[in-house]
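Bench notes, afternoon.
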Amino acid sequence: MPRPRKRRVVCALPRQNLFGPLNVREGARIQAMTVEEYETIRLIDGEGLSQEECAARMDVARTTVQRIYADARQKLASSLVDGVVLKIEGGDYRLCEGLEEAVDLKACRKCCEKHQRGKAGCPVKSGSEG
């Protein structure tokens, strides 16, 4: 019997979940990207974390992050190069406990590196910090 799959911690949900060419035709191919694949792209490329730091944030092994990240990059490349529509949905994840503290529920203050460093582009509004 295989061991149960560990749910990945996600600290930011996408503001939009559908991406692709502007001139998409009806019936175009749609590629699904899981929320945890999106999270690895957000953390590694968007926040500038290493794969080890990303793994700690998502509460999984580095090799798991490496595999998820490789899958996500392949899907991004397919979308950019081949004009495939990318839809972010589903996966096996749980939301970070700090997400409830976020003002706009897009990322939590605890986990947002840009917020912690005071950098522009942070999805967490600075309104009511505690």
